[in-house]
Design goal:
By secondary structure, this protein is α+β, with helices and mostly antiparallel strands. 27% of the residues lie in helices and 45% in strands. The chain is built from three helices and six strands. It is globular, with a radius of gyration of 15 Å.
Length: 136
């Protein structure tokens, strides 16, 4: 049986650990590694796109990181309950034309009893920035 520690119910400390683990995994830009934090049938909403299951997650992330160069993400604790965590985040990336962007947003996560994320709902906005305006 797959388990991804820490397991729910979360304390503030273990919720923050889970957030840091997610940030580190996403910054690796390794779709396989990232996908293993999710249930086989995980449900996502990412902006207006719906992604279901690990295979689609891997495909989505592979395409994402082909388009988003020099990707750097920072996640921040917002709140938590027993098996849910809410985060704020920002990330910066460069598109294929060389233009820089900062994306801001919120994510709501729901975990199963084995610590795998079964639902991820992300609301994201992109802001064009100059390279000199980068923070991350």
């Amino acid at each position: 049986m797959e388990r991804k520690y820490p397991l729910p119910p979360f304390s503030e400390e273990t919720a923050k650990q889970k957030i840091q683990m997610a940030e580190d995994a996403w910054n690796s830009q390794d779709p396989q590694k990232v996908s293993m934090a999710y249930t086989i049938d995980s449900e996502w909403r990412n902006r207006s796109q719906f992604v279901n299951g690990r295979e689609e997650i891997r495909s989505f992330l592979s395409e994402k990181w082909k388009k988003e160069k020099n990707y750097k993400l920072k996640k921040e604790y917002w709140s938590h309950t027993d098996n849910r965590i809410a985060v704020r985040f920002e990330y910066e990336y460069q598109n294929e034309a060389g233009d820089w962007f900062r994306a801001y947003g919120n994510e709501n996560w729901e975990f199963n009893e084995n610590g795998l994320m079964q639902k991820r709902y992300a609301s994201i906005n992109d802001l064009p920035i100059l390279e000199s305006e980068r923070k991350l």
